[in-house]
Amino acid sequence: MNLIANFAVLASRRTIFDLPVCDLGWDDALVFINELASIPVGQTVVCFVNAHNMLTALRDDEYYRIMSHNLVLPDGIGLNIASQIAHGAPFPANLNGTDFVPAFLTFMEAPRRIGLIGGTRSVVEAAAENFRRHTPWHEFVVISDGYFDKVDSSVVTEELERQKVDILIVGMGTPLQEKWVHDNIRADHARLVLTVGALFDFVSGAVPRAPRTVRMMRLEWAYRLLQEPTRLWRRYVIGIPVFLFHVLRYRFRRRERILSYPEEHGTALQPRSEHKKAS
């Protein structure tokens, strides 16, 4: 992440499992990321993290380390509950990639050249076409589908160098997309990178969105579970309770660490009156 982005995120974040998560509201997040897209130097990688991603990060040290260097936006009710438990308030906005990225493309008035990587060829081509209809002042270029050699990605990176995009949107699923971007995408490939999971499936129409009322109630996860119970039941039926268990355990262990720190270092906490006497 470039220095400007890093400073801004440090000024407005809250930690979940010691991972800094941006706590900007919807409008402020749009303005902030639009500014990042305008910076002529450095690179910022934006990722969207939900409860499932957080559990993955707890098990995968490499993924956790990569995420700690990215701009992390909160996605879903699980992160809100974690924030409520850890910090006493939910996040100001649900900045999920499926809603935020199309809104960001609309908000961004300056024309940009935007590259797409991920999904099947038909899905990413359809997503690009729908993006063109949605925001015709931008130029969308399909760099590659998601079915390429991840060990030797030179064909894809060479195409990126040739296309000279401003922004890169990568949709290959977590944690593969974040790891691949970290290992392969340089600042001269794209100044702003958005890792978006299944966004292309939704934008192309290959996977239907939940009705608007359901999305406003933040229950799209339940709608998706009903649509794909075989694939998603472990993530939601088992994953959410496991995630909440880890949140509660982290909160109390963190409190114990904070309270025990002064004693371990020979500076045991004193009642307020004793501090006044000592002074």
Which structural class do you get from the secondary structure elements? Answer: alpha/beta
Distance separating the two termini: 44 Å
Instruction: Tell me, rounded to a whole number, the average pLDDT.
Output: 85
Which strand order spans the largest sheet, edge to edge or round the barrel?
A: 4-3-8-7-5-6
Number of strand segments = 8
Largest sheet: 6 strands, parallel
* Helix residue percentage: 55-70%
The number of helical segments is: 14
In total, how many domains does the architecture comprise? 1
Oligomer: single chain
Low-confidence stretches: 268-279
Structural write-up:
With 279 residues, the protein is of the alpha/beta class. It has one domain. Helix content is 56%, strand content 14%. It is built from 14 helices and eight strands. Strands 4-3-8-7-5-6 form a six-stranded parallel β-sheet, sandwiched between helices. The protein has a two-stranded antiparallel sheet with strand order 1-2. The longest helix is centred in the C-terminal third of the chain and has 36 residues. The C terminus is likely disordered. This is Glycosyltransferase.
Which key features would you list for this structure?
279 residues, alpha/beta, 6-stranded parallel sheet, two-stranded antiparallel ribbon, 14 helices, 56% helix, disordered C terminus, Glycosyltransferase
What's a quick, concise take on this entry?
By secondary structure, the chain is an alpha/beta fold. The chain is built from 14 helices and eight strands.
